[in-house]
Amino acid sequence: MHIMNFAVFNELWGIKKELTDIGEDIYKEIKSDFDKIDALSGNNQLRVISYFQNFGLSQEHFFGSTGYGYGDAGRELINDVMAKIMQTESAIVSSYWVSGTHVISDCLNAILDSGDLLVSAVGSPYETLNKVIEKWKVRKGIKFEEVGLEYKDKEAPTIDFHGLNEKLKEKPRALFVQKSKGYSWRKTLLNNEIKNIVELRNEISPETYVFVDNCYGEFVEEIEPGRVGADLLAGSLIKNPGGGIAPTGGYAAGNEALVELVGEELTAPGLGADMGATLDTNRDIIQGLYFAPVVVGEALKGAVFNAAFFNELGYNILPGVSWNRGDIIQAINLGDEEKLKSFVEGIQKAGVVDSNVVPIPEKMPGYESEVIMAAGTFIQGASSELSADAPLKPPYYVFFQGGLTLNHSILGTLMGAQYSF
Ligand SMILES: *Cc1c(COP(=O)(O)O)cnc(C)c1O
Predict the structure, then answer these.
(1) For the segment 33-82, what is each residue's pLDDT rounded down to a tens digit?
(2) Which of 95, 107, 126 maximizes ligand 1 atoms within 8 Å of its Cβ, making it the mutation to test the pocket?
(3) Model's pTM, two decimal places?
(4) What pLDDT, in 10s, does the model give residues 236-249?
(5) 3-state secondary structure the chain
(6) CA 181 to ligand 1: nearest atom
């Protein structure tokens, strides 16, 4: 590995020498973490290349369709490759899904009937899902319950298997399993833990579907949740699997019958996902998937650097520096509103686009408290690119993620530190 010359941050961005000195020391100390991540992203990328080869990727797949979009070979190949990646029977990738929330909403709609019980297995779901669930409670009479977190380790709460065991006895129609911590201070689930959830389900309530919100989790481990028996999973193309190139969209993957139901939510009953013009999106989605494992590796290294840096400065971080990671998010407890705002401002200043913009806290659709976000990104709001978000509420956690390259992610950490001190 080359040793980066941290003086460049000093020269080009005026980062204080005391910070670049810390950065340079840390960079050397975390070499073995970086090596592990390189091995992971290398294996995952080779896996993806082999899938494209096996499905016979050729120029024709790059040209999208118009109108009804019947017989779109590119769309079909992308779906097949995504199913392989997610280790499921079937998958749909579509740029008609406007965001992760949208595809998750369609998935829940596909598997829940009126009167069904939906259980969130690991505390509260991601904030933008509250309105989705609220609506079905009213419209479909769906019941919704959460299994609270277990606080054995106060600094890293996680899944409460005892509580889950009890809730499964009520035979819910579906378990909502959010892999990533989202905007909450809890451990991200590893796929092995999802396996434990699946096994508990098999024992207590085999009819219950396990639905995994896989946002931010793709390519972070050697396996995906499909491998450990999740029935359905979903995620966003402007996060990990888009590789910074897919312009918009989402995916759903899982058991064939369930994915077919999701396809009917995406278009209409009787139509399903065998239609839908892809316009000009196929090549970008394919190239994005090709790059995605490596981009995720860069983001993971950036997260490890960020964790080590803010740990060195004395902050509580989650996950810890060398923990096994299940997503690309690094959470820091900044403990102070002003520090939080200036950290996020620093991240925006480090963006490659709109670096002169000052982020301000705002009410956003789907979020309860005001949210402050930095995303100077090529793809609007793409959080596999260098970005930071935080709900503006005590104790002032910030969630840092991305950077399409490690260099850029390190710049983000240093700028965040420079501004918040
Ligand atoms: C990003 C995310 C979502 C969906 O958010 P969108 O902004 O609608 O894409 C859902 N769950 C988790 C855990 C997420 O990180």
Answers:
(1) 999 999 999 999 999 999 999 999 999 999 999 999 999 999 999 999 99
(2) 126
(3) 0.97
(4) 999 999 999 999 99
(5) CCCCCCHHHHHHHCCCHHHHHHHHHHHHHCHHHHHHHHHHHHHHHHHHHHHHHHCCCCHHHHCCCCCCCCCCHHHHHHHHHHHHHHCCCEEEEECCCCCHHHHHHHHHHHHCCCCCEEEECCCCCCCCHHHHHHHHHHHHCCEEEECCEECCCCCCCEECHHHHHHHHCCCCCEEEEECCCCCCCCCCCCHHHHHHHHHHHHHHCCCCEEEEECCCCCCCCCCCHHHHCCCEEEEECCCHHHCCCCCCCEEEEECHHHHHHHHHHHCCCCCHHHCCCCCCCHHHHHHHHHHHHHHHHHHHHHHHHHHHHHHHCCCEEECCCCCCCCCCEEEEECCCHHHHHHHHHHHHHCCCCCCCCCCCCECCCCCCCCEEEECCCCCCCCCCCCEEEEECCCCCEEEEECCCCHHHHHHHHHHHHHHCC
(6) 13
